[in-house]
Amino acid sequence: MEKVAKKIVNCLDREHTIWNELDRMRMMLGIEILFHNILMIGSILIFSRCLNIFWEACVLLSGYGILKIKAGGIHMKSSLGCMIATGMFILTGVFVARRMELDMSMIVIVYVICLTVLIVLGPQGTDNHPILHDYRKKLKIQICFIACGYLVSSFLTYRAMSMVSYLLVVALIFETISIIPLYIKNRQ
Question: What does the pLDDT read at residue 160?
């Protein structure tokens, strides 16, 4: 992916007049991340289509991804590791959600517990992507809005499409679990 990103940047700035070397490196990194995400999400969704869990995978991947952007949590060290871990999470999450039978009061309790953990422990950055102290409060507020939005969505879809409620609960639980190891590591 690095070679392709470099070729694209060279094609965009052939005479090396638009960007300095630091900007070129940023552009290459951005293109690599874009390719990684397209490849990972595309592969997971194609595989989920083969397993007839496409729409559930879309809901779960979206719900988890939106939370992950704001709350942070564990990251794999390689693109392949990330794709395998995320793919396993999506498959496991869909099959767990399909077997869930929670009434709305239990869903609310799960949301309250997870939201409390996310607010107290989150957001969690990594060594490569630390979160500035001043930015934490803003992220905590955004996490609250996202989780409350998921809860409202769960209320609205519970009767007609309870699977959506369960998928959002699974996304919230998995994201809550994913910040705990980094919280422990960052406290040491």
Answer: 86
